[in-house]
Each structure stands twice: as structure tokens, then as C-alpha cells.
């Protein structure tokens, strides 16, 4: 990432702190229940629709949050409008996913636009979702210290450049299924340097401005400024140290060994799938837990989302491998964190 793009990202995020247009302000209470989804990229159900294989698990998750009384925050790129027409998306998902989204009602459904559904920035009359205030926002402010946005800020794309990209993407759609069969397609989280640079830029902005940022865009789930593989490594080190200190035959040894094997297996899976991402800080500096990325709906075997419930924040994976019930499919990744403790660390400790 060049210096200009880095500065553009920071300038756009600065603007979101000051702008009064396309910004929604919400108050968090001790009883707030919010579920954040991003980067679903709903398509036409055919070979280039990258979420089609996760439709059932997404529907399961949406029903769970609807019945549990959560409000839904859609943090951009819900429809894949670069590749597909809105008509084709509604034809495929109008009676399933979009119907479930609208079942939340306008008071429990908030839309943020991203770069692949940026049309909602200017044209809301054809929006298929019955969202709060009949508006798509660029960002949400939760209280005075949490910023929720898509995360594509900093891109200096004119409408002409966007149109050219749409034409390029739709051209590639003709060969994408064949490319995927040959091993050139990847529907998992991106593995290039570009997302990492953007994540680092947003992280450094959040740290400097004493904000907690929740976003999407890069398709890489991050919790409290840590990728999953880095958190797994911490858990493996901690458990190995505990086992080393325990005497032979200690009653806790078996449970700790089972947990260690589980984390080691998870670590190997992350490594195998190319998710050995570099840390957001250099030289083993402790990260500030100020950057959260929702992930996406495009993982091979599930989707990720972020929950805020009763003063806690957590990152959840809905796995398509573990059955068809919410109890079996909903998995907590990392350990949930207290928002009050995070605020104290991010905001107050730097004053």
C-alpha cells in the first residue's frame, strides 16, 4: 500500500467522525443485542455466486438472531451488485435470505453500504430491505467510542472507475467456474498483502483516535486486533505452560491435554488454508484491542459474524459442518470480551 492510499484511509475515517450525513448514531445499553454481518455478496445462485453453498447456514443464523431478539447491522456488500443485477439477486434470494432479513422489521435492521452495494449510497427507493429510517448509512456511531463501517474507505474511485470495474468483474464471471475447478478460484478469506495493509491502516487509525472499529471488507475475521491463528498460538503456549507446571496425575491434566489437542488441530487447519497472517504490530508489541473485522459469508464451511449482547462482544462462526441446529452450528471463536473493559483499555488508558 502506498502512502497516498494510507493517508486517504485515515482521512476518510476522520471524516466519519465529523460528518453528519449518512451517519447513524445509536446508544448502547447494558441490554443491547446486536448482530453484525458483512460481505455476504448475494448473487444469482449459479456458479459464480460465492455464498450459495452457505445459504442454509446463513438462514439458520438469521432465524436464531431474529428469535433471540437481536437487531441486525448489515455492514456492507450484502448484495454482489458488481457481478449481478438486483433483479437476479431478488429472484434467487427474495423468498429466502432477503425475506428473513425483512422479518426483523425496520426497527431492528440497519444497513451500511459497502463498495459492492454502493448504489444504496444514492438510490434507496429500490432497496429490497425494509431498513431503519429507510436509509443506508456510511457508518454507525455506537455511543461515542465505537465506529461501525464497511472498511473500504480510502479508495478514490469515481463512478466511471466503478463502472469499469463492474464490467471487468462481470467479464471474469464467464470463466470463474472453470478457473475455480482448475484451482485458481478461492472463496475463502483473501491471502494477499493488500488486505493486511488495509487492516493495519485502520488498526493504527483506531489506536490513534481511541476508537473501537468494527468493519468488514477484507473477508478476514479479526477479534480485538488478533487473527484467529495468533490467538490459537497464545492459547497453545499458555496451556503447554500450565501442563508443564502440573504434577503427574493431576485431575486437570486430561481436560487441558484435550483442549491443547483441539487448539493444535485448529492451528494446523488455519495454516493449511493459508491464514497464517502477520500480526498488526511489529516486534511482538502488544496490540491494542481496538480493531474488529466481521469476516464474511464466503468461507468454505460457514460464515462469521460479531455479536454484542448484554455488555459483551464476541466473534462467532456458524459452521455448516456441525449439524442443522443453532446449538451445534454456532461456535464462539476467541473468548468474549467485556465492552466496559475494552473501553477502559482503549479510551481511558490513553488519556
Can you offer a commentary on this structure?
- The chain is an alpha/beta fold and 351 residues long.
- It folds into 2 domains: 3-224 and 288-350, Metallo-dependent phosphatases (Purple Acid Phosphatase, chain A, domain 2, 4-Layer Sandwich), CATH 3.60.21.10; 226-279, no CATH class.
- It is built from 11 helices and 14 strands.
- It has a 7-stranded mixed sheet with strand order 5-4-3-2-12-13-14. It has a 5-stranded mixed sheet with strand order 1-6-7-8-11. Strands 9-10 form a two-stranded antiparallel ribbon.
- Helix 1 packs across helix 7 and helix 8 packs antiparallel against helix 9 (253-272).
- The protein is globular, with a radius of gyration of 20 Å.
What descriptors fit this protein?
14 strands, seven-stranded mixed sheet, globular, 11 helices, five-stranded mixed sheet, 351 residues, alpha/beta, Purple Acid Phosphatase, chain A, domain 2, single chain
Write a compact overview of the structure shown.
With 351 residues, the protein is α/β, with parallel strands linked by helices. Helix content is 37%, strand content 18%. It has two domains: 3-224 and 288-350, Metallo-dependent phosphatases (Purple Acid Phosphatase, chain A, domain 2, 4-Layer Sandwich), CATH 3.60.21; 226-279, no CATH class.
Amino acid at each position: 500500500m502506498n502512502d497516498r492510499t494510507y493517508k486517504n484511509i485515515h482521512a476518510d475515517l476522520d471524516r466519519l467522525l465529523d460528518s453528519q450525513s449518512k451517519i447513524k448514531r445509536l446508544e448502547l445499553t447494558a441490554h443491547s443485542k446486536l448482530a453484525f454481518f458483512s460481505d455476504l455478496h448475494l448473487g444469482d445462485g449459479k456458479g459464480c455466486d460465492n455464498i450459495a453453498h452457505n445459504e442454509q447456514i446463513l438462514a439458520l443464523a438469521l432465524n436464531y438472531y431474529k428469535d433471540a431478539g437481536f437487531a441486525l447491522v448489515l455492514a456492507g456488500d450484502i448484495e454482489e451488485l458488481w457481478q449481478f443485477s438486483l433483479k437476479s439477486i431478488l429472484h434467487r434470494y427474495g423468498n429466502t435470505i432477503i425475506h428473513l432479513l425483512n422479518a426483523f422489521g425496520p426497527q431492528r435492521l440497519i444497513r451500511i453500504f459497502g463498495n459492492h452495494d454502493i448504489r444504496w449510497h444514492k438510490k434507496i427507493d429500490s432497496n429490497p430491505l425494509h431498513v431503519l429510517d429507510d436509509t443506508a448509512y456510511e457508518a454507525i456511531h455506537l455511543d461515542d467510542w465505537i465506529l461501525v463501517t464497511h472498511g473500504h474507505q480510502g479508495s478514490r474511485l469515481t463512478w466511471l472507475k466503478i463502472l469499469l470495474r463492474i464490467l471487468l468483474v462481470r467479464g471474469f464471471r464467464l470463466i470463474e467456474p472453470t478457473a475455480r475447478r482448475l484451482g485458481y478460484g478461492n472463496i475463502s478469506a483473501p491471502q494477499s498483502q493488500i488486505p493486511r495493509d488495509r487492516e493495519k491502516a485502520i488498526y493504527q487509525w483506531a489506536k490513534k483516535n481511541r476508537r473501537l472499529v468494527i468493519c468488514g471488507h477484507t473477508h478476514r475475521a479479526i477479534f480485538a486486533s488478533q487473527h484467529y491463528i495468533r490467538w490459537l498460538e497464545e492459547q497453545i503456549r499458555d496451556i503447554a505452560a500450565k501442563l508443564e507446571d502440573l504434577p503427574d496425575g493431576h485431575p486437570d491434566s486430561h481436560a487441558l491435554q484435550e483442549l491443547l489437542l483441539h487448539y493444535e488441530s485448529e492451528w494446523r487447519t488455519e495454516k493449511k488454508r493459508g491464514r497464517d497472517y502477520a500480526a498488526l504490530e511489529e516486534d511482538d508489541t502488544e496490540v491494542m484491542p481496538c480493531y474488529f473485522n466481521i469476516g464474511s459469508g464466503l468461507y468454505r464451511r460457514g460464515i462469521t459474524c460479531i455479536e454484542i449482547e448484554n455488555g459483551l462482544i464476541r466473534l462467532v462462526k456458524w459452521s455448516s459442518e456441525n449439524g442443522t441446529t443453532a446449538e451445534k452450528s454456532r461456535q464462539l471463536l476467541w473468548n468474549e470480551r467485556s465492552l466496559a473493559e475494552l473501553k477502559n483499555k482503549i479510551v481511558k488508558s490513553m488519556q
